[in-house]
Model the fold of this input.
Amino acid sequence: MQTESQIISVNHNGTKLLGHLFSDAESKDPRPAVIVCHAWAGCDAFALKQAETMASLGYAGFAADLYGEGRVGTSTEENAELMQPLVENRGLLRERLRTIFNAVCELPQVDTDRIAVIGYCFGGLCALDLARSGCPVVATVSFHGLLTAADSLATESIKGKVLVLHGHLDPMVSEDEIIALKRELSEAGADWQVHIYGRALHAFTNPQANDRELGTIYDAVSAQRSEISLKNILRESFTAQ
Done:
C-alpha cells in the first residue's frame, strides 16, 4: 500500500491547528482512523511517524497539532512553555480535542463510527481527556501518559475501551494516581486495562529519550510490548463495530 499525507488545517477559536493525515493513496474509501496526540514537544517527527504507522496498518492516521501552527519545542524549557497553558486549562484542552475529533469525522477517508485516539506523555493525558469528555472514540490508548483527571471537569460515561501503558519507574506518575485512575475508569463504565512495565521509565517508546535525570529513557523491550498491545486493542475495537 502506498501512503499519502496531507496537512489538515483545523480552526479552534482563532488558533490554526495543523494536523497531518496519512492514508491509502490508492483508495478514498472510509476506514477506521487513529488520532495521534503528541508529547510535550509538539507535533514532531515522532508523532508523524506514529500516524504514518497507523496508515501502514490500513487505518487513517491523523497526527494532531495541539499547540497550533505546527509549533515544536527544541528544549525542555520551551516544551514546558508550550504544554503548560493546556495542562493548566483542561477545559480549553478538552474543547480543542473535541474540535480535532469533529474535524477528523468530516474527512472522507474516515469511518466516523470507528475512531480511536492514542497519545504519548502529554499526549497520553490528551487521549484520556478526550475519552473523559464522553467523546465516542472506540478505543483510547495512553503511552507513558500523565494520568490525573481535571478537578474542575466531570468524567463522562466512557463507552469505548481504554488501555493505559505505563512504566513502573516513571517518576512523573505516582502509585496514588494509578489507583485513582482505575477507580475513575471503573466509575465511568469503561472497559479498561492498565499494563505496567517493571523496568520502564517515562517516554519508554521514544528512541530519542535519553535523559536519566529527567526520567525519560527509551526501553526497546517495553516499546515492543506496548506496540503489540496497541495493535491488539485496535484490531479488537475496530472489528467489534
Summary: The domain at 3-240 is CATH 3.40.50.1820 (Rossmann fold). The longest strand covers residues 110-120.
